[in-house]
Amino acid sequence: MLVYLFRRLVNVVFMLLVVAAVTFGIFFMVPKLTGTDPAMLYVGKIADKVAVEGIRHKMGLDKSIIEQFWLFLKGVFVGRDYNAGTDMTHCAAPCLGYSFKTEREVWPLLLNRVGVDFSLAAGACVLWLVFGTATGVVSALRRGTALDRLTMTVALAGVSLPMYFTGLVALAVFGHQLGWFPINYTDLADDPVAWFEGLVLPWVTLAFLYAATYARLSRATLLDVLGEDYIRTARAKGLKEPVVIGKHAMRSTLTPILTIFGMDLGGLLGGAVLTEKTFNLRGLGYEAVTSIQSSDLPVIMGVTLFAAFFIVMANLVVDLLYAVVDPRVRLT
Amino acid sequence: MSNTDKPFLSVRDLKVHFPTDDGLVKSVNGLSFDLERGRTLGIVGESGSGKSVTSLSIMGLHRTGTKRGAPRISGEIWLDGEDLVAAGPDRVRKLRGQKMAMIFQDPLTAMHPYYTVGAQIVEGYRAHHPGASKKEARKRAVEMLDRVGIPQPDKRVDNYPHEFSGGMRQRAMIAMALVNDPSLLIADEPTTALDVTVQAQILDLIRDLQKEFGSAVIIITHDLGVVAELADDILVMYGGKPVERGPAATIFESPEHPYTWGLLGSMPRLDRELQDRLIPVKGTPPSLINVPSGCAFHPRCPYAELTGGRSTSEVPVLAEAAPRHHAACHLPIAERHRIFTEEIAPRL
User: CA dihedral in degrees (B33, B36, B39, B42; nearest 10)?
Assistant: First the structure.
């Protein structure tokens, strides 16, 4: 078990290294292909040659790609000093470099942004997990009835309708028309009530999208499970139907749901571009879009690493949980 | 209720029909038999003969597990003076696992993979002993595992089904079925999924336990070898109907129905020296939606033309061929005996 965990953690680090290397490669190649000069981006349009060269030297952009990558990695773990003679800037670990645009450190910026995604995911995931699974289960147990057909039609709509459609409708109706919810995001630390109110619409809209998938999955899985021999055995033992369904069938139904839940949550923490854009939330997804638009490569790199980290970690957690849920899975 | 005059289990004109998109599937279409405590009945037939549906109907498990509506069930199933067909689902549930229990074909899929063997036995015990503490139930589970011959039962009780071998799993299934001392035990193909070496052990175990508990046992199988080991009486089913019924020894010695001859001919025998090859029953099992007219077996029966057309026009009924021995066949008894002694017996 510990050996397994250690191996998986090594794996995580390796995966992140690969992601970092590929992103860094692109980071290095793009300026060459587009003919833009990273040093120029830092300095701005009206810069004299000396200033540009100074920046290039200070940021280490005059070094080879291998050396730059090494300095970047080192910066992540032990921090990094940018210096050019007397002009020295210290970037504390974990250092992801400086934004071209704002010239501020990337790490604190992203740390600030990811709070929004945590807030968004926390509420939405509870909603979609509870409602999605419950809907699917009820649908499966009432298979073929009007209720089943209705919920599955709604679920199909949920899967098919894009976020920016349902989100905008929700905003227009509940935000603007009825005015039930504010359409601004407030930080949790500033005002918990406003934080909650501001997130209700994004939560519900996002949860609707995911819940539809969960409803379909849990319905299909439960129907499969109900046909299993061990369900017949449970009934043959004379167990009450709620025990047969609630205990024996649900235990097996929740396993695949757990898997995609981990993946979805990991993906969501790495930024929800459409949701953030629709509800004007400034999370990692928003940061990704703006940094791509402005070719702010250090930020793109940071966002990518953040997202990769959450997905890889979610993967690991799911695999560990799987062994807890299914005794047949051995972690070796 | 007085139970003395009635057999312990009495099935009367049982019909189980499943509505499907293609039509009504008549899985069981008029079945009657009696079974006393301490006796073993073997129900034999090929796939689709209705033998499994019969057992599920007795257990009340046919109500679930259908995709297009509930099956239509008629007739009577009297268990210890109580009609299970007329009884409410909750009453049948209470009897299930307590008064009647079932062992299934594949012990790997029949046990929940996520719960320990012990937990699954404990659950069955506590479902019918609400007052029993977890500790008592666990003790009972260990006791049952020991009784069915599982070594180190106090340790194995905490194992998961996948940690058991196939034979051990079936033993555990038996322990689970017997945990509440049922008076009726139904074993649906209990050895089909097992290694040949393990099959005999499981059959021995079932026989020993029956002697010990004195319960009535129904063995459902397509394998005449299995019923030869265990059964006191044999019921041969074909196309949802009984075609022959009698004491096991009689069925093996002087079978009356051509289908039974076919089954015997297709059974490998180790106790006979001369046997060139097995003779399969020709043709395919009948459709249960459009059951062949007259005798359902006539399209496959080599002697159908000897009935003078009756086999295609008239449904044969179970008639006494000898004391306690019944067969549903249009062939005259003398003719059947002649065919069996002259043509069939020498090839067996």
Answer: 20
| Closest among B47, B65, B53 to B26, alpha carbons compared | B53
- Per residue in A85-133, pLDDT (tens digit) is 666 778 877 888 888 777 788 888 888 888 889 999 999 999 999 999 9
DSSP character string of A262-295: HHHHHHHHT--HHHHHHTT--SHHHHHHHHHHTT
Determine which helix (DSSP H) or strand (DSSP E) holds B160, and give its type and residue range. Answer: none
Q: What residue has token string 């090839």?
A: B347
Which residues of chain B lie closer than 8 angstroms to A243, CB-CB? 127
Quote the distance between the C-alpha of residue B149 and its chain's center. 24
Among B47, B168, B73, CA closest to B111: B168
CB contact under 8 Å between B127 and A239, yes or no, is yes
pLDDT digit string (tens) for chain A, length 332 residues: 788 888 888 988 999 999 989 988 887 777 777 777 777 777 666 667 777 777 777 777 778 888 888 888 888 888 888 776 666 778 877 888 888 777 788 888 888 888 889 999 999 999 999 999 999 999 999 888 899 999 999 999 888 888 888 888 888 888 878 878 877 777 777 888 888 888 888 999 999 999 999 999 999 999 999 989 999 999 999 999 999 999 999 999 998 998 899 889 988 888 888 888 888 888 899 888 888 888 788 888 889 988 999 999 988 888 888 888 888 887 76
Q: Which sign, positive or negative, has the C-alpha torsion B89, B91, B96, B99?
A: negative
Binary contact (B59, A236; C-beta < 8 A): yes
Q: Write b or e for each residue in B187-226: b if 16 or more Cβ atoms lie within 10 A of its Cβ, otherwise e.
A: bbbbbebbeeebbebbbebbeebbeeeebbbbbbbbbbeb
Please enumerate residues of B whose Cβ is less than 8 A from a Cβ of A: 59, 61, 64-65, 93-98, 101-102, 104, 106, 109-116, 123-124, 127-128, 160, 162, 173, 176-177
Cβ contact A238–B64 (<8 Å): no
> Whole-angstrom Cα distance, residue B298 to residue B200?
35
User: How close is the nearest chain A Cα to the Cα of B140, in Å?
Assistant: 15
Residue of A nearest to B109 (CA): A229
- B65 to chain A: nearest residue by CA? A227
| Residue A326 token pair | 């299914």
- Contact between A258 and A268 under an 8 Å Cβ cutoff? The reply is no
B58: nearest CA in chain A? A236
Question: What string of DSSP letters covers A282-332?
Answer: -SHHHHHHHHHHTT-HHHHHHHHHHHHHHHHHHHHHHHHHHHHH-TT----
- Residue B114 · residue A325 · CB < 8 Å: yes
Q: How close B5 comes to chain A (CA, Å)?
A: 28
Q: Based on C-alpha coordinates, what's the Rg of chain B? A: 21
* pLDDT on residue B172: 94
Residue A168: C-alpha distances to residues B168, B209, B339 (Å): 60, 69, 84
**Residue in the block written with tokens 């180790």:** B270
Are A232 and B65 a contacting pair at CB < 8 A? yes
Residue from B58, B93, B98 whose CB has the most chain A CBs within 10 Å, to mutate: B93
CA separation for the pair B348, B341 (Å, rounded): 11
ipTM of the complex in this document: 0.89
Q: How far is A178 from chain B (nearest CA, A)?
A: 45
Please name the residue of chain A whose CA is at the shortest distance from the CA of residue B111. A230
Instruction: Say yes or no for a CB contact (<8 Å) between B98 and A238.
Output: yes
**Contact (CB, 8 A) for B265 and B257:** no
